[in-house]
Amino acid sequence: xxxxxxxxxxxxxxxxLISWLVGEIFGxxxxxxxxxxxxxxLLIHQLWHASRLSRLLLxxxxxxxxxxxxxxxxxxxxxxxxxxSWRDQxxxxxxxxxxxxxxxxxxxxxxxxxxxxxxxxxxxxxxxxHFGINxxxxxxxxxxxxxxKPAFVQYIIRQNYREPVRLNxxxxxxxFSLDVQIFPYGDKQKLLLSxxxxxxxKTDSMRRDFVAxxxxxxxxxxxxxxxxxxxxxxxxxxxxxxxxxxDLMSVQTGRMKTLVEDLLTLAKLEGNPEPPVTQVVPMGVMxxxxxxxxxxxxxxxxxxxxxxNSQKNVxxxxxxxxxxxxxxxxxxxxxxxxxxxxxxxxxxxxDEAIFSVIDTGTGIAQEHIPRLTERFYRVxxxxxxxTGGTGLGMAIVKHVISRHHGELKIExxxxxxxxxxxxxxxxxxxx
Length: 431
Known about the structure:
It is built from twelve helices and 13 strands. By secondary structure, it is α+β, with helices and mostly antiparallel strands.
């Protein structure tokens, strides 16, 4: 491809040659006139393409390459190639920017970009939820005009951003807690990050309550044991009184042992994310074991009926299921007055199978039912301790049935009785 200098020299040589030929044939004056006409036409051609180029630059239309001969064709082609290169670079930058925005929007943390005056330049959707910000409405507003928590305002004023600040009771409809931290960057700009720590706070609260409850549950039998030991050591007792005290001490020891066993069972269930083994658990044998346990606990004080209305068995862990079923049966025996009826039932319900324990006990008020599976939750604390309950049985039942992909249902009426049902889905059923 010829260079611009070569093209210009060629054009002038052609004009000179035409003028010289005309001068030789028609005379010098005609030659000069021919040269003037050629140069004028050349000038008009250049001015027309210059005007065309100006219009093209003022209102570019990507993809359209004007047609032209000679040097202007090459100019248009190179200009189009340059514009296409710039356009590809712009598209690539836009795609990178779009991916970056999508990544920031996908993060579970709130992100707010602040300028040197602490004005909001941009924020993601999570930040809008955390702080009640509208990215368009609140653009260039000072963040402290929107987030007016005193702890946050002081955090901004002190400019000590090494540690996050905890903000509680955030949100309009749903209350949550946030850890907020600022990271300076660039030219006096700041990046404000927020993290929802509501679940962490809830877990910490549950841990504190759990430790307090365990301490409280162990304190009573330990106090009783300590008192009885002092009595036995310091007083001279006859054989009858000594036996009485030792029996009471044995009861308290058994209570602590049961509590520790339930705690270990619950810890094992909560700490094992893997689903239970899929061995076949024969429900006929299971119902016989539960009936013997119920009769042993009842000592003839209740009418106990076992109904096996299904040929299905359960795929799962025998020990876990026995623990869950046993807790429901023992609860029914403990909370059903003497002379009451207890029914242990295994039945079909479509593709599912249901284990139920039905009693004619005192019943449970509706406000207590949603909380029955909480650890150490008791409807009647004094009565639960008198009957030997640890407050962990229903929590164990909940974890076992969840691990077996089933569902716990509770129906109860005060003064009438209760029905606790564990339903097993089709994938947990074996014939």
